[in-house]
Design goal:
Layout lengths: L2 H12 L14 H27 L19 H23 L4 H14 L2 H9 L7 H21 L4 E7 L9 H4 L3 H7 L4 E7 L11 E10 L6 H6 L5 E10 L9 H10 L6 E7 L2 E8 L1
Antiparallel strand pairs: 1-2, 2-3, 3-4, 4-5, 5-6
Helix pairs in contact: 1-2, 1-3, 3-4, 3-6, 4-6
């Protein structure tokens, strides 16, 4: 669910600014306390806000699982993958800043990436509006595992998820579900969301450091969660696949911690670029796609 992406952005934006550069070989316990206190406080406040925004007025039920794996063309599941990856990535970077060794930092990051999203499933399980989802849990584990696997293979991240969004005409048709303003549409309208895997090609072969190749996934024509209801109401639900160039800002460094933190967040976003789209057997070229 897209609220998890909203959740990860809030927490990462609120944690202390850090650089992955080490100052020594010993664990910096003062930095570790700063990360634990700052991150913990931000996480707690964000969880409270999430509960107030999504769950407070929904009532409660005995803990229940709900199978939503066929809904929204699985775009929501990709959102869970994205969120778990970035919680893992951000936590590992903070651990490295505290002079924790790379492998241990990556392991701590991946465990945290899964663990911090687990309460969302607990909230869902007690909410009549949702229900806990095994698919969400698998997506969370996959996102954290994707981060850890790259560190196991290369001791660095070479394939980075990114996100992009554009408003669609579907939200006004069901504003209570898809959003009634651009900020809520960003969170709720799966038709406008695209998730990317950006390949840092220069880490594999000779290639410009600033230029990546990205593959993307999204879906369109979804006013209702499942295909049956969409088709019955005259809509055309369909998956969309993308191939695009991408621009890597991770090589940009600043002596200012706030700038580096901002660049970390910017690196989560797919910059508009020429893109090929494939959907239902047809190809389309976008001179500039976001």
């Amino acid at each position: 669910m897209m609220r998890c992406v909203f959740f990860v952005l809030l927490v990462l934006a609120g944690t202390p600014s850090f650089s992955q550069q080490r100052d020594s070989l010993q664990v910096d316990r003062q930095r570790l306390r700063t990360v634990a206190i700052g991150g913990g406080a931000t996480y707690g406040l964000t969880m409270a806000g999430l509960y107030h925004l999504w769950y407070k007025d929904a009532g409660s039920q005995p803990f229940t699982f709900f199978n939503d794996n066929r809904e929204w063309k699985q775009v929501d599941k990709v959102g869970h993958f994205f969120s778990a990856f970035y919680f893992s990535y951000g936590t590992a970077a903070a651990m490295k800043w505290c002079n924790i060794p790379d492998k241990k930092a990556a392991l701590i990051g991946s465990i945290t990436g899964f663990a911090v999203l687990f309460p969302v499933e607990v909230f869902d399980g007690f909410s009549p509006a949702y229900g806990a989802s095994s698919g969400d849990l698998i997506a969370n584990a996959s996102g954290a595992g994707f981060f850890l696997a790259q560190h196991a293979l290369w001791n660095e991240v070479r394939i980075i998820p990114r996100f992009s969004f554009q408003r669609t005409g579907y939200a006004p048709l069901r504003p209570n579900v898809l959003g009634d303003y651009w900020t809520s549409e960003l969170i709720k309208d799966y038709n406008g969301q695209t998730y990317w895997l950006s390949f840092d090609i220069d880490k594999f072969v000779r290639f410009p450091k600033w230029l990546n190749i990205a593959v993307g996934y999204g879906a369109n024509g979804m006013v209702y969660a499942n295909d049956r209801d969409n088709l019955a109401n005259g809509f055309n639900p369909r998956r969309q696949w993308y191939l695009s160039i991408d621009f890597d800002v991770s090589h940009v460094k600043s002596r200012y911690k706030a700038v580096n933190a901002a660049l970390f967040v910017v690196n989560m976003i797919k910059i508009p670029a020429p893109t090929l789209e494939w959907s239902k057997g047809s190809m389309r070229f976008h001179p500039l796609y976001f």
